[in-house]
Design brief:
Layout: H1 7-32, H2 34-46, H3 73-78, H4 82-90, H5 101-113, H6 119-142, H7 144-147, H8 152-158, H9 162-169, H10 181-188, H11 191-205, E1 208-210, H12 212-216, H13 218-223, H14 229-238, H15 248-254, H16 262-265, E2 305-307, H17 321-328, H18 343-358, H19 364-382, E3 384-385, H20 386-391, H21 395-404, E4 407-408, H22 415-418, H23 427-440, H24 447-461, H25 466-481, H26 484-494, H27 515-528, H28 534-545, E5 559-563, H29 580-583, H30 587-595, E6 597-603, H31 606-614, H32 618-629, E7 633-635, H33 638-646, H34 648-653, H35 657-662, H36 666-670, H37 674-677, H38 679-687, H39 691-700, H40 718-732, H41 739-756, H42 772-775, H43 778-791, H44 794-803, E8 820-823, H45 835-851, H46 856-867, H47 874-886, H48 899-909, H49 911-918, E9 934-936, H50 975-979, H51 991-1016, H52 1024-1040, H53 1044-1055, E10 1063-1066, H54 1081-1084, E11 1112-1115, H55 1120-1129, H56 1133-1142, H57 1149-1160, H58 1163-1173, H59 1192-1202, H60 1213-1239, H61 1241-1279, H62 1285-1312, H63 1320-1336, H64 1353-1366, H65 1369-1396, H66 1408-1413, H67 1416-1425, H68 1434-1442, H69 1446-1454, ...
Parallel strand pairs: 1-2, 3-4, 6-7
Antiparallel strand pairs: 5-6, 8-9, 10-11
Length: about 1500
């Protein structure tokens, strides 16, 4: 056979290969071109407009981070960047690992396992699992010192990650599994995992170790197991190795427990776990250990079991609460809980508490109450809550828990919260329910009565006949509980009544099937319905029993249960438990069906109708009409419906007057809505495609109103649906459908179509041709169109419009639909739908515009729905506008566009515009005035009632309420402005142009208006904070979208406007004063700060002061968020320098930039630049970081490798911190005091009064001194009249000297006088102490925020007054003395601390701090740069073990470091101390041999 080869195909293949080769060559040519490659990478990194976000909430300044900058292990795992993480680990790149990293990794294992197990996912899951295992292995091999910083096996168990556990416990890692991990396994894992852990113990420790507290609280821990509660409890209670420990509380409670059922009696007694006979062969373990092993506990040898038992303690009355708390309280809710306490510490605490107790014998009664409270607290962690107990499925397990008394009975719970006694329960379940109620919810019964009930239950259990046994149990429960519902069900099920329950009616039913007994039972059932008062019912019953006209008919057989979930599959059918009790219906499954069922009156025979009509009895009629009025009346067939219609006249002849007046509303009997009467038959006929019944209902001639139940079930065959549609469309014309039923029916057809057919098939079950105008009135069609609009059923709306020939004009009844923009969330998508719904809505608009163009209101409504749907593209919007333009000559649909349209136009153009609008400060505060807390464009907000709006934007009111309606002008942000294109198809206005106008309209205009209003009202700067936040919002937005160019553009605009500089701050440690001599020339040439004397005409500052008085400058301040984002995003150091130059005179701005760089991880560029250019003091080598992509190790490496001279003497860090703190405080003090007095008017008034009092005292003293001097002068002159002039001159000189001395003394008195209260210096001292406390507490942690209130004349006068006061020499000396004394005091305390304990012996030093935290890398780095200066101390070891960081102790035991003063392995004293600590540890005492090699 010849094979012909098509030459055209060969040529096509050759051409394709040639094209691929050419493209390959071109690619590498471009790639190797350095200029082109850099240009391409530049645009990739800096072009942001092409990034399309689906939700404005997803816009974040940390988006699109470079892979090289991502170092956080946690972040890479959470974002599922497993391939990137694996590559970084293989390349041994630096990765930031935290103590939570292993938790994230183990959860990733679980999340991968919990994904859907469909075939499409299976391969992907397997690949992911392989990668995750590779990552774990790489972390253990290359990053183990960083990764194993805590108990990894316990973490894996806590997250039920068995795949990771198998890697950890086997070679080559063989990580220890400590005994306390069993508690985590019980709480989180499958019992097989517990079995595996016990196998591991045999392998690692040579024996099984079960901590006492794990045993004691095992049931409670199992009750908290969210996935395997029941399996774990069965494992604990019925396993060969009993994990449940017996205690006094359990044994005492078990004596009063109820008897177990026969099915559980054989397993009710359990032996002590210590006396359990077990056998085990240790040689049967063969590594590696896997969870797949099916080993049982009977294989475990007795000799290998150790149960940790504490001393047999008995708590006496005098034992205190604290003592018991230390002994028995277990905080199980805390994830990091450890079981076990140090015995030595417990004994010491017990002795101390006993001594205290002897001194407090008089408080014995009070302590007894506390003891009871403590017992309740112990029960909280010993017993399981009743809700968990009741949710268990196994009756055997429940009986066992009841027997052991492990159920916590909450006093606030009632039997009605849980217990449900149903006539349909099988015997075992009903017996259990009743026993639970008697045991836990029958406090009104004494023990004698409970014993009698238990005896009767034993008798019932001994009955052989299963039917009779169940019946007798039901009868006993009814007599005991008097439950009406159960009594009614008993009558319905057996046709019998319980005479003991109806003694008041005076009748006795023999329950023998006779007519009299049946009538008694019938009337008793009616009486239980509660339709009549007791007296009236008894009267009617006696009359009815004496009425010979009433003949018995089994009418009660018509009352049946209707289960709404009859079509659902039983969710519990997959139960694999072999216990017979679990194979029967449990209470949970039965009660679920009972809750979804109701009793209906089901008429299926004509004889039933005839009997009801002929029986003229009020009680019987009340039974039937009760079901009619409660919509539980059913008619089996349409024939019966017709029969009842014919006999309706006979029914009306009956005497219902008294009945209707006394028990039922007349309208419910005589005016029963026929549209509702047939609803169930109508629904049933459609579901079963019963054409005959539908024809009968159509003959009745009513529009049937249906319930919310479905017409068509999801599994209805398509052929059956087509047959039904054929009848409805051709013969019936949907005659019996009301418009609501028709809508529901069509929506179900659409739903089934979507589930059966692909979108590409173009098939639909909806009738292709259906003349709606002939079936429904025009008003109904219009109403249905409006409903589809409000409910977003656009596919149905599209179908209805196609089938409608005449729509009329829909005006929505003159109602205005709300136009919502956003709420507090903020949510902006108020019309929800998929991309297919958008296409359907566009099709609806196209039909409306072409077929019904005059319906402008409904077209506008659908159009508004379109533009606020998530995912609408610009191209789709442009297509709709082209449709509108075709009708522009006739009608303009967009003639009345407003804020709503402008908002969503901007949103469709770029979601970043939406993000900016919704990030405007205080934009959501106006929602407080909205009735539904949503911004409605049609709602007139109260905050705008007093505002006079103008074209330039309204003024913000006094409460700073911002209304976007006043600024986002629809005549500016039009469709043409936002989406207009030129001839080349490009937008006329770029993103930047639109953004510039948005900034101007939404920020600059309201800010300028506010400034103008303040200026006109002589209220300058009254809203400075609000204005600053508004302007900062522009800068923050530019940084969030990573437009650094726009950030500097608008920063320049703001800085150049003097009106925007609202902060009046003083300068002291600004960048201009902190430049290093080695910095760049550009920074040195920046201008120094100059105080604006025009702003402060009366402020005079001296230069030679002990304490600096603030020099005031006017600046615009960046918010902390803006600074943080700027430093995070700006990578170019030159731009960072530019940012500093803009704030060259601000207080500590360079320090703020430096800290921001450390917090956000910009260590290698920005932080290094600041340290090389400015004076930066370091008082530590670790800095806490807010970002995941940076860690302390990088900080330390930078400081130690490049700036070691700044951290060379860590022992001086504390002294340096004190000095720096007081240096800053000294420079800030006077400014802080001025601000303090401005904020505290009462303190300011006290200061003025004190100063005035001192001045008055000074004046009086001066006057007295002058008088005395004058008198002395006169006396001297009189006594020395004969003296010569020289003597007089001498006397005068002496007198003058005396006067001068007096004046000096007065001045000294002004400083030291403290006898008069309040005194000036006392007042200053009090203010100083308060400001100092605030400074130390961090209230002034950002000194750059210091600003004075000088906008009002009174406030400015305060500043002038305080300036003059603080520049006085005596005040300066006073504050200088206080500062020096405080500094000396703190330095002395620090020195004394150093004398008591040297720096290298403290556990707070730079080595022991990371040692205690288990940070091996940090410790090694410290030792490398500080050789022979640190050692491991005993206190550090104790705290490290307390923190469960044994790994670092093992590391330094195995790896001697020559840079340590003494090594752990060679320091015998330290090693013995370590062993002593480990000996008392509940877990680590089993690894003592590790430290003996």
């Amino acid at each position: 056979m010849e094979i012909k080869i098509n030459s055209n195909n060969i040529n096509n293949v050759k051409q394709k290969k040639q094209i691929e080769n050419d493209n390959e060559i071109l690619f590498w040519n471009v790639f190797h071109n350095k200029f082109l490659r850099c240009l391409i990478m530049h645009h990739i990194n800096n072009t942001h407009e092409w990034v399309r976000y689906e939700d404005h909430n997803n816009i974040h300044f940390n988006n699109r981070k470079k892979f090289k900058d991502i170092i956080s292990l946690d972040k890479m795992i959470r974002s599922k960047q497993y391939t990137l993480l694996k590559y970084k680990l293989e390349s041994n790149e630096h990765i930031h690992i935290t103590k939570f990293s292993s938790t994230y990794l183990f959860k990733a294992f679980n999340n991968n396992n919990n994904n859907n197990n469909n075939n499409n996912n299976k391969e992907e899951k397997e690949k992911t699992l392989i990668i995750l295992k590779d990552i774990l292995n790489l972390l253990l091999t290359k990053k183990r010192n960083q990764f194993e910083t805590h108990d990894l096996t316990k973490d894996a168990i806590s997250n039920d990650c068995i795949e990771a556990l198998n890697i950890l416990i086997n070679e080559p890692y063989s990580i220890k599994v400590y005994p306390s991990t069993l508690g985590k396994a019980i709480k989180n894992c499958h019992p097989n995992t517990v079995s595996l852990l016990l196998d591991i113990q045999i392998k690692q420790f040579g024996k099984i170790i079960i901590p006492k507290k794990v045993k004691k609280y095992s049931i409670f821990l199992a009750s908290k197991n969210k996935r395997y509660t029941e399996e774990m409890m069965n494992f604990i209670l019925f396993g060969d190795l009993n994990l449940l420990i017996s205690s006094a509380s359990l044994s005492s409670s078990s004596t009063s427990s109820s008897r177990s059922s026969p099915s559980t009696s054989s397993t009710s007694s359990t032996s002590s776990p210590l006396s359990t006979s077990l056998s085990y062969s240790e040689t049967s373990i063969s590594p590696p250990l896997q969870l797949k092993s099916s080993r049982t506990f009977k294989d475990i040898a007795v000799s290998s079991i150790i149960v940790e038992e504490s001393e047999n303690k008995r708590f006496k009355k005098e034992d205190t609460v604290k003592e018991k708390e230390e002994y028995i309280k277990v905080q199980v809710e805390v994830e990091e809980e450890e079981y076990g306490q140090k015995e030595e510490e417990e004994e010491e605490e017990e002795e101390e508490e006993e001594e205290e107790e002897e001194e407090e014998e008089e408080e014995e009664e009070e302590e007894e109450e506390e003891e009871e409270e403590e017992e309740d607290n112990e029960n909280k962690y010993t017993f399981i809550d009743f809700k968990t107990f009741y949710s268990l499925k196994s009756l055997k397990l429940k009986y066992k828990l009841m027997e052991l008394g492990l159920i916590s009975n909450n006093k606030n719970l009632t039997a009605g919260d849980f217990i449900e006694l149903s006539i349909d329960f099988p015997f075992e379940n009903l017996l259990f329910e009743f026993r639970v109620e008697i045991k836990y919810f029958s406090n009104h019964l004494n023990q004698t009565k409970k014993n009698e009930i238990e005896k009767r239950l034993d008798e019932i259990e001994s009955i052989i006949d299963e039917f009779e046994k169940l019946k007798q149990l039901q009868k006993l429960i009814i007599l005991q509980t008097k439950l009406i519902g159960l009594s009614k069900d008993y009558i319905l099920k057996y046709g019998e009544s319980i005479n003991e329950l109806h003694l008041d009616d005076g009748f006795h039913s023999l329950n023998d099937g006779s007519e009299r007994s049946n009538l008694i039972n019938l009337f008793r059932y009616i009486g239980l319905l509660g339709l009549h008062s007791t007296d009236h019912f008894l009267k009617l019953m006696k009359e009815s029993m004496n009425d010979n006209k009433i003949k018995w008919y089994p009418i009660l057989n018509c009352i049946k249960k209707e289960n709404s979930n009859s079509n659902n599959n039983n969710s519990n059918s997959s139960n694999n438990n072999s216990n017979i009790n679990e194979l029967k219906p449990t209470k949970t499954t039965v009660s679920t069906s009972l809750n979804n069922s109701k009793k209906i009156f089901f008429i299926s025979k004509k004889s039933e109708v005839d009997w009801f009509i002929e029986c003229d009895n009020e009680l019987i009629h009340s039974l039937v009409f009760e079901h009619i009025c409660t919509d539980t009346f059913r008619i089996d067939s349409v024939e019966l419906i017709e029969y009842i219609q014919l006999e309706r006249a006979n029914i009306k002849k009956a005497n219902y007057k008294s009945l209707s007046e006394k028990y039922l509303k007349k309208s419910q009997i005589e005016g029963i809505d026929p549209r509702k009467q047939y609803r169930h038959n109508f629904k049933k006929a459609i579901q079963n495609c019963d054409i005959k019944s539908l024809e009968a209902i159509d003959k009745v001639g009513v529009k049937v109103v249906t319930t919310q139940e479905r017409f068509l079930l999801p599994n209805t065959p398509i052929s059956q649906i087509n047959t039904l549609l054929d009848y409805l469309c051709t013969k019936s014309k949907f005659k019996s459908f009301c418009i609501e039923s028709f809508e529901r029916f069509c929506l179900e057809l659409i739903e089934i179509t979507n589930s059966c057919y692909s979108k590409d098939d173009g098939l639909s079950l909806l009738p292709k041709v259906l003349p709606l105008n002939e079936i429904f009135p025009l008003e109904d069609i219009q109403r249905l169109i409006v409903f589809t609009l409000l409910r977003s059923n656009f596919k149905l709306a599209q179908y209805l419009l196609k089938q409608t020939d005449s729509l009329g004009y829909i005006d929505l009844d003159g109602k205005t639909l709300p136009l919502f923009l956003f709420d507090n969330s903020p949510v902006i998508y108020h019309c929800h739908g998929s991309k297919d719904d958008i296409v359907d809505l566009i099709n609806v608009l196209e039909i409306l515009v072409t077929k019904f163009p005059n319906n402008d209101i409904i077209i506008k409504s659908f159009y508004r729905n379109l533009i606020q749907m998530k995912g609408v593209s610009i191209e789709q919007l442009e297509y709709v506008h082209q449709l509108f333009q075709k009708q522009q000559g006739k009608i303009n649909y967009l003639s009345e566009t407003g804020l709503f349209e402008s908002f969503y136009y901007l949103h469709i153009r770029s979601i970043k515009f939406t993000f900016f609008i919704l990030s405007i400060p205080n934009i959501e505060e106006i929602l407080d005035f909205s009735p539904n807390e949503m911004y409605d464009c049609n709602f007139s907000f109260q905050s705008n009632n007093n505002n006079n709006n103008n074209d330039d934007g309204a003024n913000i009111n006094n409460n700073n309420l911002y209304d976007i309606k006043d600024y986002l002008k629809s005549n500016i942000f039009t469709y043409d402005f936002i989406f207009g294109r030129d001839e080349g198809g490009y937008f006329l206005n770029s993103f930047d142009n639109i953004l510039d106008l948005l900034f101007n309209q939404l920020i600059f205009i309201p800010v300028n208006n506010l400034l103008n209003n303040n200026s006109n009202n002589n209220n300058n700067n009254n809203n400075s904070t609000f204005i600053s936040i508004m302007l900062n919002s522009i800068l923050e937005f530019c940084l969030t979208i990573k437009r650094v160019d726009l950030f500097f553009k608008y920063l320049e605009i703001i800085k150049n406007n003097e009106n925007y500089k609202m902060k009046f701050v003083y300068t002291y440690n600004s960048p201009s004063k902190s430049i290093l001599s080695t910095t760049t020339t550009l920074l040195k040439n920046c201008k120094q700060p100059i105080q604006d004397n025009q702003l402060y005409p009366n402020l005079k500052v001296c230069d030679d002061l002990l304490l600096p008085i603030p020099k005031m400058i006017k600046v615009f301040r960046l918010t902390p968020n803006v600074i943080q984002k700027a430093i995070t995003i700006i990578e170019d150091v030159e731009l960072v320098q530019k940012l500093i130059e803009y704030h060259f005179n601000e207080v500590q701005f360079h320090q703020t930039v430096f800290l921001s760089a450390l917090w956000c991880g910009r260590i290698q560029d920005t932080a290094r630049f600041i340290m090389n250019s400015y004076q930066v003091k370091l008082t530590c080598i670790n800095v806490f970081s807010f970002t995941e992509d940076c860690d302390n190790l990088n900080y330390s490496k930078l400081f130690l490798t490049e700036f070691f001279e700044k951290v060379q003497y860590p022992e001086n860090f504390e002294q340096l911190t004190i000095q720096l703190s007081f240096k800053v405080f000294r420079e800030m003090l006077l400014g802080l005091l001025i601000s303090y007095y401005q904020d505290e008017p009462l303190e300011y008034q006290k200061l003025i009064n004190s100063n005035n009092n001192n001045n008055n005292n000074n004046n009086n003293n001066n006057n007295n001194n002058n008088n005395n001097n004058n008198n002395n002068n006169n006396n001297n002159n009189n006594n020395n009249n004969n003296n010569n002039n020289n003597n007089n001159n001498n006397n005068n000189n002496n007198n003058n000297n005396n006067n001068n001395n007096n004046n000096n003394n007065n001045n000294n008195n002004n400083i030291n006088n403290s006898n008069n209260s309040p005194d000036l210096f006392n007042q200053l001292n009090q203010s100083y102490q308060k400001v100092k406390i605030h400074f130390k507490n961090g209230l002034y942690n950002r000194a750059t925020e210091m600003a004075y209130n000088i906008t009002k004349p009174g406030k400015y006068q305060q500043v002038i007054y305080l300036y003059d006061l603080f520049q006085r020499k005596e005040v300066q000396s006073f504050f200088d003395s206080l500062l020096k004394d405080d500094q000396m005091k703190e330095e002395k305390q620090s020195f004394e601390k150093e004398q008591l304990l040297k720096y290298n012996e403290r556990h707070e030093n730079i080595f022991n701090e990371p040692f205690i935290e288990g940070d091996i890398e940090q410790c090694e780095l410290v030792l490398k740069h500080y050789p022979n200066r640190f050692k491991i101390t005993q206190s550090a070891i104790a705290i490290t073990i307390e923190n469960n960081n044994i790994h670092i102790i093992k590391y330094y035991y195995d790896n001697s470091n020559p840079n340590l003063i003494t090594n752990l392995k060679t320091d015998i004293t330290l090693l013995n101390y370590l062993k002593m600590i480990l000996k008392n540890h509940p877990d680590y005492k089993y690894i003592l041999n590790y430290f003996c090699k």
